[in-house]
Automatic annotation (TrEMBL):
The entry's keywords: Signal
Protein name, per record: Neprosin PEP catalytic domain-containing protein
Keyword Signal: yes
Domain Neprosin PEP catalytic span(s) in chain numbering: 171-425
Biological source species: Solanum lycopersicum
PROSITE patterns to which the protein is assigned, alphabetical: NEPROSIN_PEP_CD
Signal peptide, first to last residue: 1-29
Ranges where the record places region Disordered: 154-173
Taxonomic lineage of the native organism: Eukaryota, Viridiplantae, Streptophyta, Embryophyta, Tracheophyta
Record's keyword annotation contains Signal: yes
InterPro entries referenced in this protein's UniProt entry, alphabetically: Glutamic_endopeptidase, Neprosin, Neprosin_propep
C-alpha cells in the first residue's frame, strides 16, 4: 500500500513538473511572440516615418540625413493633402513681395551682426534640388519614447488652463514645466520674428528638455489651443544626445492628438533642400566667448492662408497649411518668446536643467542668453515692434527674464538660469 502511495505521489510530482515546464514554454513562446510583434510594429512605424531617399548623408554627430523627393515627404500622408499642390514660395513676405524666389533687397541688406551658423550635416554633403533633407528616425529613437504613439509628440502637457489676467496663455500653467518669457496679447497677430543666440544647456534627466522658441497661440487654452512653435532645443529623449537642434512643433487641440515635432507626422510642408528640421546647429555660443544666433520668422500668407517659416535671412523652409488649425486659420491672439524647461523633480528637488546659457539675465551679453529684434506681423503684413510687452516666469529664483530696448537690437530681453541653486532648492 505504501508503495502505491509513493508511486502516486511521484506521478503527481512529475505531472506538476511537466505542467510547470509547459507553462514556462508557453510563457516563453508568448514572450517571443510579443517581442516579435513589437519588432514588427516598430519596423512598420519606421517605414511610415522614413521615406525612400534619393541620397543619404552621414552627419558627423551620427545623424543620417535622407534627401527625400519633395512630393514624398511625410506631410502628404495627411488625407487632406493627397492632391495638394506644393506652394513653392509664399505670395508675400512681411517685408515685401517675393521676386524670383528671393526676398526683397531691403531684407537682405539688414545687418543683424550675427556670426555664421550652420547645421553639422552640411560638412558631409547637400541634398539635390527637388528634395528635402529629413533626419532619419532610428529604432533607438522610438524605443526611448514611453510608447510608439507618443514618439515625436509632447506627452506631458495634460493640464492647460486659461491664463489668469496678465499671465501668458497656453504654456504658463503646465505641471512640471517652467518658463522665462516675454509676451504680447490683446490684438490680432499674423506672425512673429526674433533672433535667438544658441547654447547647449545641461540637462539633468533624459526625460527633461530645455528649449528657446517663439509661440504663436490662439484658442481658449483649454482643449482647443492652437499653437505654432519654432526655435532650438536640447532633448535627450527625442534625439538621443545633448546637441542643440533646430525644431518646430504644432498642435490644434492643446497637444492631445494633433501635431508633432519637426516632420514626425503629416502637417508641415517643407520646400527647402538646405535646412533639416531636428538637425544639430553649429557652432554654439560660449560663456565669455563668441555668440552665435539664429533668426526665425513665422508669418501668415494673406492670400493662401498658410503659415510660413523662415530660418535666417535666406532660407524659407515651408509652411503649415491653414486647414490644420481652427483658430489660427484667422490670426494668433498671443505671441510668446522665451525659454522653457521640464522640471521633473526626480530627486525631490528642483531640476538642475539649465535654461538658455544656464546663467541669469543680469549677467548680460556674452554670458546670458537673449532674444533680440523682437517683432510681430500686423494685419497689413508689416513687421513692427510689439506693444506692451509683458514678462512671465514661475519662479525668478530658478529662471528669470529682463526686458530691454535700444537702436541696435530693438526690443530684446535676456533670460534663463541654472535651475536649482541656493535660492531655488
Amino acid at each position: 500500500m505504501d508503495n502505491v502511495k509513493t508511486e502516486m505521489f511521484c506521478l503527481s510530482v512529475l505531472f506538476m513538473v511537466l505542467l510547470l515546464l509547459c507553462d514556462s514554454d508557453a510563457a516563453q513562446a508568448k514572450q517571443g511572440m510579443s517581442l516579435s510583434s513589437q519588432k514588427f510594429e516598430i519596423q512598420k512605424h519606421l517605414n511610415r516615418l522614413n521615406k525612400p531617399a534619393v541620397k543619404s548623408i552621414k552627419s558627423p554627430d551620427g545623424d543620417i540625413i535622407d534627401c527625400v523627393h519633395i512630393s514624398h515627404q511625410p506631410a502628404f500622408d495627411h488625407p487632406l493633402l493627397k492632391n495638394h499642390t506644393v506652394q513653392m514660395m509664399p505670395n508675400y513676405h512681411p517685408e515685401g513681395l517675393f521676386r524670383d524666389g528671393k526676398m526683397s533687397t531691403a531684407a537682405k541688406n539688414k545687418n543683424y551682426g550675427s556670426k555664421s551658423i550652420n547645421q553639422l550635416w552640411h560638412l558631409n554633403g547637400k541634398c539635390p534640388e527637388g528634395t528635402i533633407p529629413i533626419r532619419r528616425t532610428k529604432k533607438d529613437d522610438i524605443l526611448r519614447a514611453s510608447n510608439m504613439k507618443s514618439y515625436g509628440r509632447k506627452t506631458n502637457f495634460s493640464t492647460i488652463s486659461k491664463p489668469e489676467s496678465g499671465r501668458p496663455g497656453g504654456v504658463g500653467n503646465q505641471n512640471g514645466h517652467q518658463h522665462a518669457i516675454a509676451y504680447v496679447e490683446g490684438d490680432e497677430y499674423y506672425g512673429a520674428k526674433a533672433t535667438i543666440n544658441v547654447w547647449q544647456p545641461k540637462i539633468q534627466q533624459p526625460n527633461e528638455f530645455s528649449l528657446s522658441q517663439i509661440w504663436l497661440l490662439a484658442g481658449s487654452f483649454d482643449s482647443d489651443l492652437n499653437s505654432i512653435e519654432a526655435g532650438w532645443q536640447v532633448s535627450p529623449d527625442l534625439y538621443g544626445d545633448n546637441n542643440a537642434r533646430l525644431f518646430t512643433y504644432w498642435t490644434s487641440d492643446a497637444y492631445q492628438a494633433t501635431g508633432c515635432y519637426n516632420l514626425l507626422c503629416s502637417g508641415f510642408i517643407q520646400i527647402n533642400n538646405e535646412i533639416a528640421m531636428g538637425a544639430t546647429i553649429s557652432p554654439l555660443s560660449s560663456y565669455h566667448g563668441s555668440q552665435y544666433d539664429i533668426s526665425i520668422l513665422v508669418w501668415k500668407d494673406p492670400k493662401e492662408g498658410n503659415w510660413w517659416m523662415q530660418f535666417g535671412n535666406d532660407y524659407v523652409l515651408g509652411y503649415w497649411p491653414g486647414f490644420l488649425f481652427s483658430y489660427l486659420t484667422d490670426s494668433a491672439s498671443m505671441i510668446e518668446w522665451g525659454g522653457e524647461v521640464v522640471n521633473s523633480e526626480s530627486d525631490g528637488l528642483h531640476t538642475t536643467t539649465q535654461m538658455g546659457s544656464g546663467h541669469f539675465p543680469d549677467e548680460g551679453f556674452g554670458k546670458s542668453s537673449y532674444f533680440r529684434n523682437i517683432q510681430v506681423v500686423d494685419e497689413s503684413n508689416n513687421l513692427r515692434a510689439p506693444q506692451d510687452l509683458g514678462t512671465y516666469t514661475e519662479d525668478n529664483n530658478c529662471y528669470d527674464v529682463q526686458l530691454g530696448k535700444n537702436n541696435d537690437w530693438g526690443n530684446y530681453f535676456y533670460y534663463g538660469g541654472p535651475g536649482r541653486n541656493a535660492n531655488c532648492p
